[in-house]
Automatic annotation (TrEMBL):
Entry superkingdom: Bacteria
Entry's EC annotation: 2.1.1.228
Keyword presence, tRNA processing: yes
Protein name: tRNA (guanine-N(1)-)-methyltransferase
One GO process term, biological-process aspect: tRNA N1-guanine methylation
CDD domains: TrmD-like
Amino acid sequence: MRIDVISIFPDYLAALDLSLIGKARAAGLLDLAVHDLRDFTTDRHRTVDDTPYGGGAGMVMKPEPWAQALTAVLDVGPDADADDAPLSEDAVPGSGVAADRPVLVIPSPAGEVFRQATAHELAEADHLVFACGRYEGIDERVAEWAADRFAVRPLSIGDYVLNGGEVATLAMIEAIVRLIPGVIGNPGSLTEESHADGLLEYPMYTKPASWRGRDVPDVLLSGDHGRIARWRREEQLARTAARRPDLLPPVC
Ligand code: SAM
């Protein structure tokens, strides 16, 4: 998989060198590049924002640097800075999702909510591009323009507002990349965790069996795998009902 991240704060993405993602890159499972949006500006001040049409607070990210940066990550040569920018051979004009088009993720609190199912879907892509907004976000025309070149996905990581798309991008990349075969050593870890089967995970314990007056539930020390599986399922249901009742299937 190839991932390109475009941001005005590329240093924010330094964490992508660490831990399992860093190892995946070193092992050649992931080709990841971070780009500074300001490298695609043309004025002396490297301007990326301007005031909003219609008035109101804050600034909006200008479309021109985004078009240049997004064209560059498509490897189709220089942007003509016009509507006739060349398309890659794989690019299919249109706004629907096509397997052979790169996916452009635009983090946004106004996007569709990113879930485990979204992570699985995006883990199948060959090429993901993350466009990290700042200020009040990116001029809306960028997403419209990009729909001829990418499958465009405005995605939110939750119902709250961050200062920029970098933290959201880090969260989404981590959730996606750990699903690529070979990234997690034990694939069983991916099937026995929260959201894998729609429920939250059961409580986990490790040694010592007794700690500060608190004992691990007896059943987990029993060696009876059937009983342990039943206990874990009951705990999953109880925990999900208590913390996330919205995840339980509706009772008819
Ligand atoms: N004016 C925008 C709105 O009300 O929808 C919020 C802009 S926010 C201050 C700046 C940037 O942070 C956004 O363009 C987006 O990239 C990112 N961002 C903020 N909250 C986010 C969330 N919940 N999920 C994903 N990205 C988010």
